């Protein structure tokens, strides 16, 4: 808006230039915003491309007459004249300067044609620029909506998986306590106390989305202590959790399905069996390993029903740590091993 004032002071241009400049600026703005707010969303994005292009042509043609009329009023332009006197004098002057046999001076095109070319190029540039800007904004909005939908889907799936894990874990633990009641009432009371701590963790500390690694390790230790009440001396149980580590925020119930699966399918009361649980914590990574023997009496049932715990953990890992985790499951006739490496960022 300040350019005309600068030109007036710098080159002493008349007021006619100011009026023409502002008229053309207003016309350009009208073309830009009509295409931006009405034509592009109304026709182009709705698949009505022919109507869009026809509307653009009509828009440019209509405002050409407005622009042409303003030029006539400002410069007192005579329609029947194709060259002004000033252009003719400049043309004659160039002819005199050229040496004999030199290049022929073509001269400037007529004023009306020159204005038409400039107006057409400027209008087309404004139309395609506003259309491109509208397309970019629309794509950005669509991408933002897709991310929000993916986030909502992620939250709903995580909530569903967590709610699915909790009843599954609770059901198996109640079965273990039930088997202890007739054998040792005192141990069954301790088991109920342990279970109350576990359920308190499930109900309150896992509702905030993430939990601390320290709380998760305490939860796993309480579960393992609960499982120790029903294992015999033939079970070789090895548990190694880090004592000193940087506490990290992690999703809850990531490791307990592996431990639960080990106690469910790795314990045999007729022959020697083992469970080996190990965790290592670095500054921004966690390495977890759980290896157990496969009881022959349960080998066939394990093939028919692998449970929902491991499947849920795999889904959660894909949602929570895409390309930042590595889950390896090694199976054989006698052993079952799970290795999980997670990068926490």
Annotate the secondary structure layout.
Elements lengths: L2 H9 L3 H30 L4 H27 L9 H13 L13 H71 L3 H21 L5 E2 H16 L6 E6 L8 E2 L5 H10 L7 E9 L3 E9 L2 H9 L4 H12 L4 E7 L3 E9 L2
Parallel strand pairs: 2-4
Antiparallel strand pairs: 1-3, 4-5, 5-7, 6-7
How is this structure best described in words?
The chain is an alpha+beta fold. It folds into 2 domains: about 5-145, no CATH class; about 185-345, 2-Layer Sandwich (Heat Shock Protein 90), CATH 3.30.565. It contains 10 helices and 7 strands. The protein has helices spanning about 5-10, 15-45, 50-75, 85-95, 110-180, 185-205, 215-230, 255-265, 295-305, 310-320, and strands spanning about 210, 235-240, 250, 275-280, 285-295, 325-330, 335-345. The strands form 2 sheets. A 5-stranded mixed β-sheet has the order 2-4-5-7-6, with helices on one face. The chain is rod-shaped. It starts with a helix and ends with a strand.
**CATH-defined topology of the largest domain:** Heat Shock Protein 90
The structure class reads alpha+beta
Mean pLDDT: 79
Main pleated sheet: 5 strands, mixed
Number of helices: 10
**Strand line-up of the largest beta sheet:** 2-4-5-7-6
**Can you tell me the CATH class of the largest domain?**
Alpha Beta
Sheet-strand content, in percent, reads 5-15%
Q: pLDDT below 50 for ≥5 consecutive residues: which ranges?
A: 77-84, 103-108
**Rg of Cα set:** 40 Å
Distance between the termini: 50 Å
Choose one word for the global shape. Answer: rod-shaped
Percentage of helical residues?
55-70%
DSSP strand tally: 7
The overall number of domains is 2
CATH architecture of the largest domain: 2-Layer Sandwich
């Amino acid at each position: 808006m300040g350019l005309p004032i600068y030109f007036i002071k710098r080159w002493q241009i008349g007021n006619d230039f100011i009026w023409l400049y502002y008229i053309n600026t207003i016309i350009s703005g009208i073309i830009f915003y009509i295409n931006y707010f009405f034509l592009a969303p109304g026709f182009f994005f709705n698949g009505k491309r022919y109507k869009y292009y026809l509307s653009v042509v009509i828009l440019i043609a209509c405002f050409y007459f407005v622009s042409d009329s303003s030029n006539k009023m400002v410069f007192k332009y005579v329609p029947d004249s194709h060259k002004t006197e000033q252009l003719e004098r400049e043309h004659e002057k160039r002819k005199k300067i050229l040496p004999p046999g030199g290049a022929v001076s073509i001269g400037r095109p007529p004023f009306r044609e020159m204005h038409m070319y400039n107006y057409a190029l400027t209008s087309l540039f404004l139309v395609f620029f506003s259309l491109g800007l509208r397309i970019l904004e629309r794509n950005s909005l669509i991408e933002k909506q897709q991310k929000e939908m993916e986030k909502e889907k992620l939250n709903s799936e995580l909530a569903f998986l967590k709610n699915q894990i909790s009843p599954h874990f609770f059901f198996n633990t109640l079965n273990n306590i039930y088997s202890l009641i007739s054998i040792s009432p005192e141990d069954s009371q301790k088991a109920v106390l342990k279970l109350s701590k576990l359920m308190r963790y499930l109900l309150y500390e896992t509702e905030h989305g993430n939990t601390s690694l320290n709380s998760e390790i305490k939860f796993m230790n309480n579960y393992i202590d609960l499982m120790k009440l029903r294992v015999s001396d033939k079970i070789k149980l090895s548990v190694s959790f880090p004592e000193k580590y940087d506490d990290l925020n992690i999703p809850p119930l990531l490791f307990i399905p592996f431990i639960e699966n080990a106690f469910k399918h790795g314990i045999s009361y007729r022959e020697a069996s083992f469970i080996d649980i190990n965790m290592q914590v670095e500054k921004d990574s966690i390495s977890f390993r759980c290896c157990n023997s496969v009881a022959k009496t349960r080998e066939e049932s394990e093939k028919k029903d692998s449970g929902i715990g491991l499947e849920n953990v795999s889904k959660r890992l894909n949602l929570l740590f895409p390309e930042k985790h590595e889950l390896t499951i090694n199976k054989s006739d006698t052993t079952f091993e799970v290795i999980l490496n997670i990068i926490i960022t």
